[in-house]
């Protein structure tokens, strides 16, 4: 290749001193480094919004494979901490996870752009779906119900597989095993809005008590000292036979101590070995400069500012007698995005109460959106875009439907992301303490158990038809259970990606309709 250069530039380059040429080379190197950084960011994130099917449990597994195993952006310890942290904060857990990973690796701008790439494809798809749903009648063609049932059945198998894989990483001892079991079992029995965060907090306290052996030490105080008496008798007999050797050892020890005192006065201080401490939980390595995104003061300010705006929105929501419909929709979704802990198992019943209960969206349209979002890539919280658009459109307001979609998007996503950004400013300080690691280990185990709750709840409402638009359990027909097993086995032992399992489930549903219903 022939390159053209100005004669003035050439003459300037010949006579340019080395002191001015060196900064120019550094600037060129910095530019190459920046372009490489954004190229790596684009390669890692561009496709996730189109290929990450299966909901939050599957998303976590995808993120672990990509960012921990392949790219090495974070290590296993950091991943487990972020997993517990994102489950312990309100809002969409997998979205916060992707935001935090990219922010740690490349700064908050990378985190925000990753969030946009991740969420916008599904959000645009759900908005387009709302335009079509608003024009259909009360019932849909029978093949559509079969297609949706097949998609839901395959999704159940994918989430069940993700639950098993997450459990293999979360279970590290008997206590974490018990907490995973209790999280799944109790979550199936009781699902109040306040219950999941309280359950995860109790799990964190339980692992702190277990790791610090507070109960073990308490029980030892009241244990009968029979074994101790026998050991003391044996020690007495052995001590009588070794009196001479002990005496000589004590003499040598005293001589060594006197010599050390003389050495301390004359030469250098001699460091004595510290007594061994019981291992509880080793604190992680400190943040590097790249990971130190915010100071703790800035993080505290962000959290306080968020709760100030939250209180203002809720006060206006309760005091205004006839607020505009877009504001009411935003306030309800903003409240839902702030108080939802645990992700998928909680968001569906809560949005039913806050949107369908207000009369803004019909129950049929809500369940149709629920079935479709299970087969869409990206975060399940994109259903808020669908609901916001329908709420504004069905109530004959003067506001355009795009306003409702944007209200739903920002209302549901902004609380979790803002709180995640603020907590990351505090995390570099908090994570150095041993009790923090123990606490998050319990939160991680309980959150993993709640994934089984999501499997159970979707299992109960996965099959749709003309008679039961609210959904029926998969066991109504063994064929749907076989579809679930197919997606689980295909992903577990044959490496079938989640999006392919979803497509196979939909195709099997249509095939079932052709054989049984047509």
Outline the structure in words.
The chain has 518 residues and is an all-alpha fold. The chain has one domain. Helix content is 75%, strand content 0%. The protein contains 22 helices and no strands. The chain has helices at 7-15, 18-45, 48-51, 56-70, 76-88, 93-106, 108-133, 142-170, 174-189, 195-211, 214-221, 226-241, 243-266, 296-319, 325-339, 344-356, 363-375, 383-394, 401-430, 434-460, 478-493, 498-517. Helix 5 crosses helix 6 (93-106), helix 8 packs antiparallel against helix 22 and helix 15 (325-339) runs antiparallel to helix 18. It is globular, with a radius of gyration of 30 Å. The model is unreliable at 1-16, 246-254 and 257-290 (pLDDT under 50).
Secondary structure blueprint with pairings:
Layout: H1 7-15, H2 18-45, H3 48-51, H4 56-70, H5 76-88, H6 93-106, H7 108-133, H8 142-170, H9 174-189, H10 195-211, H11 214-221, H12 226-241, H13 243-266, H14 296-319, H15 325-339, H16 344-356, H17 363-375, H18 383-394, H19 401-430, H20 434-460, H21 478-493, H22 498-517
Helix pairs in contact: 4-6, 4-8, 5-6, 5-20, 6-7, 6-19, 7-17, 7-18, 8-17, 8-20, 8-21, 8-22, 9-10, 9-20, 10-20, 14-15, 14-19, 15-16, 15-18, 15-19, 18-19, 21-22
Mean pLDDT: 78
| Secondary-structure class | mainly alpha
Query: How can the largest sheet be summarized?
Result: none
The unreliable regions are 1-16, 246-254, 257-290
Radius of gyration: 30 Å
Which H/E pattern describes the elements? HHHHHHHHHHHHHHHHHHHHHH
Q: Name the helicity range.
A: over 70%
Number of helices: 22
Query: Judging from the principal axes of the Cα atoms, what is the shape?
Result: globular
Number of strands: 0
Strand content: under 5%
Provide the number of structural domains: 1
What is the rounded distance between the termini?
66 Å
């Amino acid at each position: 290749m022939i390159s053209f250069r100005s004669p003035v530039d050439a003459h300037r380059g010949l006579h340019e001193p080395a002191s001015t040429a060196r900064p120019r080379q550094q600037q060129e190197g910095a530019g190459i480094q920046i372009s490489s950084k954004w190229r790596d960011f684009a390669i890692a994130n561009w496709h996730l919004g189109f290929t990450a099917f299966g909901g939050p449990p599957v998303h976590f597994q995808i993120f672990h494979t990509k960012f921990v195993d392949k790219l090495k952006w974070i290590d296993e310890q950091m991943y487990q901490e972020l997993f517990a942290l994102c489950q312990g904060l309100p809002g969409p857990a997998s979205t916060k996870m992707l935001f935090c990973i990219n922010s740690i690796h490349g700064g908050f701008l990378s985190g925000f752009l990753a969030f946009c790439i991740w969420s916008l494809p599904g959000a645009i798809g759900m908005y387009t779906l709302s335009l079509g749903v608003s024009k259909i009648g009360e019932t849909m063609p029978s093949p559509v119900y079969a297609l949706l049932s097949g998609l839901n059945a395959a999704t159940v198998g994918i989430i069940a597989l993700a639950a098993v894989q997450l459990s293999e990483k979360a279970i590290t001892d008997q206590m974490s095993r018990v907490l995973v079991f209790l999280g799944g079992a109790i979550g199936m029995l009781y699902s109040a809005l306040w219950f999941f965060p309280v359950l995860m907090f109790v799990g964190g306290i339980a692992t702190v008590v277990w790791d610090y052996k507070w109960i073990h030490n308490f029980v030892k105080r009241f244990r009968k000292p029979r074994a101790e008496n026998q050991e003391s008798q044996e020690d007495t007999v052995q001590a009588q036979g070794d009196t001479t050797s002990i005496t000589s050892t004590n003499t040598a020890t005293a001589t060594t101590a006197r010599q050390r005192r003389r050495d301390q006065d004359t030469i250098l201080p001699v460091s004595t070995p510290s007594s061994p401490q019981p291992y509880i939980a080793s604190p992680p390595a400190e943040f590097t400069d790249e990971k130190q995104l915010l100071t703790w003061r800035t993080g505290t300010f962000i959290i306080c500012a968020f709760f100030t705006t939250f209180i203002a929105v809720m006060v206006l929501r309760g005091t205004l007698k006839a607020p505009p419909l877009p504001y009411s929709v935003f306030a309800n979704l903003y409240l839902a995005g702030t108080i939802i802990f645990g992700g998928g198992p909680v968001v569906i019943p809560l949005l039913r109460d806050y949107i369908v209960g207000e009369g803004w969206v019909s129950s049929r349209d809500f369940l149709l959106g629920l079935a479709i979002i299970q087969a869409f890539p990206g975060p399940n919280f994109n259903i808020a875009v669908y609901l916001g658009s329908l709420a504004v459109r069905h109530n004959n307001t003067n506001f355009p439907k795009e306003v409702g979609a944007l209200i739903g998007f920002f209302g549901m996503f902004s609380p979790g992301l803002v709180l995640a950004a603020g907590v990351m400013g505090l995390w570099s300080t908090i994570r150095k303490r041993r009790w923090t690691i123990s606490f998050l280990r319990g939160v991680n185990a309980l959150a993993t158990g709640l994934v089984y709750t999501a499997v159970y709840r979707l299992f109960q409402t996965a099959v749709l038809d003309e008679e039961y638009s609210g959904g029926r359990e998969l066991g109504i027909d063994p064929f749907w259970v076989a579809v679930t097993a197919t997606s689980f086995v295909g992903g577990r032992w044959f490496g079938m990606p989640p999006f392919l399992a979803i497509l196979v489930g939909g195709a099997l549903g249509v095939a079932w309709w052709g054989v049984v219903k047509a």
